[in-house]
Design brief:
The chain is of the alpha/beta class. The chain has 11 helices and 11 strands. Helix 1 packs parallel to helix 9.
Length: about 325
């Protein structure tokens, strides 16, 4: 079947996420294998606006599937929020003969893609964000790697926390979404998990829980704190003053974005990249490649952006129940 597009571009936008390189590799090799030319766009939408574009060959994506970050680099681009910026990006696409564009990123990146679609550029998005906060898909590239990076660090902090019989507050990424905190807290058996979607900022209740567990014989206490709540260092000082128990804060920060992607992120990135090319080949536009109910699929960008993600409160409640201290 003859492809509806002859040349496609690929860019990564917003925060980097492990698995982006696997997706880039999937796009490039799937396209070239079907006779479609590929243009790499450096530094996200900024590179599209300012013409940082180059031809990509199969060798350009050799030995990148195991690398974290993105070989195309990424950047925030406020200009894509303006009509002038969108028009300039669309003109750059036309200048280079880019008929289809693959955008790897999050909700903000998809909003830019949607605007380009309205200006005649065929676009397909691939969800790449460690926060797992895109409503239309059950999985986003980078989450599995990020949460396992956090889990490994938490396990190590727990070792020293147990040795010193202290309270440890470990802050993980997630400004608006608590999925990394929920999963890493659940997986590490943390005594408390503070999530932007749930936390009521009742610090007295948190302190009472620490004291109650200590009376029951629990000699250390792990609190996973999402970035959206933050203030872990000052929180540690208040808890220590109130309980008399040594309390330390550890902020994991950007280490959660980096590192070699897990097998899942490599595989899903590769499949999503390939599927994005197939959609453009078939003349589809304004779509997002998604993973839902165990299958890869796609949905309309406008519909995807309009969806609201419901936080799994039941998972949090199960974690709380299993982390309770018992007398027997």
């Amino acid at each position: 079947m003859e492809s509806a597009v002859k040349t496609i571009g690929v860019l990564t936008s917003g925060g980097d996420a492990p698995g982006m390189n696997a997706a880039i590799r999937g796009v490039v090799r799937r396209a070239l294998g079907q006779g479609i030319n590929v243009k790499g766009i450096s530094e996200g939408y900024d590179g599209l606006i300012y013409d940082k574009i180059f031809d990509m060959q199969a060798k350009d994506v050799s030995d990148i599937i195991q690398r974290g970050g993105t070989v195309l680099h990424t950047a925030r681009c406020p200009e894509m929020l303006t009509e002038k910026g969108v028009l300039r990006a669309a003109e750059t696409c036309k200048k280079h003969g880019i008929e289809g564009l693959v955008v790897i990123g999050g909700d903000g990146s998809f909003k830019g893609a949607r605007e380009l679609a309205h200006h005649g550029i065929n676009v397909v998005g691939i969800p790449g964000t460690i926060d797992l906060d895109i409503s239309c898909t059950e999985y986003t590239l980078g989450f599995d790697t990020a949460v396992n990076t956090a889990l490994e660090a938490i396990d190590k902090v727990r070792d020293t926390s147990a040795s010193h019989e202290r309270v440890s507050i470990i802050e993980v990424m997630g400004r608006h979404a608590g999925y990394i905190a929920l999963w890493s807290g659940f997986g590490s058996g943390a005594e408390d998990i503070l999530l932007p979607e749930i936390y009521d900022y009742d610090e007295e209740k948190l302190i009472d829980h620490i004291i109650e567990n200590r009376k029951r014989g629990k000699t250390h206490h792990i609190i996973i704190n999402a970035e959206g709540i933050g203030h872990s260092t000052s929180m540690a000082k208040r808890i220590e003053a109130a309980t008399g128990i040594e309390t330390r804060a550890t902020i994991l920060g950007y280490m959660q974005r980096g590192g070699s992607p897990t097998c899942r992120d490599r595989m899903y990135g590769s499949i999503m990249g390939s599927n994005a090319v197939d959609l453009l080949r078939d003349g589809k536009s304004n779509r997002i490649v998604i993973f839902k109910e165990g299958q890869f699929d796609d949905c309309d960008i406008d519909e995807g952006l309009a969806m609201k993600k419901e936080f799994p409160i039941n998972q949090y409640e199960i974690s709380r129940f299993l982390s309770s201290s018992y007398t027997k």
